[in-house]
Amino acid sequence: MSETPRCRDYAEITDVRAHDPAAVGRAWQERRTRSTLRGNGRLMIVAADHPARGALAVGSRPTAMNSRTDLLDRLRAALADPGVDGVLATADILDDLVLLGALEDKVVFSSFNRGGLAGSTFELDDRMTGATAASTAAAKMNGGKMLCRIDLDDPGTVATMTACAQAVDELAAHGLIAMLEPFMSSRVNGKVRNDLSPDAVIKSVHIGQGLGATSAYTWMKLPVVDEMDRVMESTTMPTLLLGGDPADPQEAFASWEKALSLPSVRGLIVGRTLLYPPDDDVSAAVATAVAMVR
């Protein structure tokens, strides 16, 4: 079987999708993969799973992520840094990147995504709408990520927890990382808010790490909050720190640097802060984060 040619530009991606959709699967099979950890055992992962849940704003820019080609440009710039281990994204973005040849020798996490779109009446209905353990394994990725928002006043939460537990088990059966992002959440003035107080994050960690029949392949994805040393005492799971969309990137960098010294922390998984910095210098923002992780 001949090697699938890599797309040179975005028009070629559309052409391939129209005329030879099977090329996507071939590109995944021919991609050069890598083990999740190497070197100092830390990871620098770029996240791009925001658009699929309708989160297109970055800071004061409400339509920052509207352009797919601009996002891909930014992702390719980030992945070109040898200190960036890989990417977390939904299938649509990952398929574009693999066709472009941007995922060679990179760690790849699929996003199982969430059904609860921000601002919707069904926002806490977080049934999974993206990747599956089977699709993640078939594409020879390193693992899958799922969100687990826990609202003690919403009976639908138990369905989310059950789905996450099942995903943990299915990923473990394939020997793949199950990356859980837990939050204690509630509606405040009609809007869903995550409780980022240390004790709430600690509670979410305990609930999240108990999901599934095995924790052997479970990792945590946690926000950097106050008293992070106390938060990290709640788990022995390898943990990646999430970046969010901070008002002050420099303040975020300082908080990450401090938290990276904690025992269970194994690196960063950051999206908008690095891909859409205020000066739009993606390479410089990524280099700053990489220096912290390395």
From TrEMBL:
Transmembrane segments: none annotated. Residues 41-290 form the Cgl0159-like domain. Pfam families: Cgl0159. SUPFAM superfamilies: Aldolase. This is DhnA family fructose-bisphosphate aldolase class Ia. It comes from Mycolicibacterium iranicum.
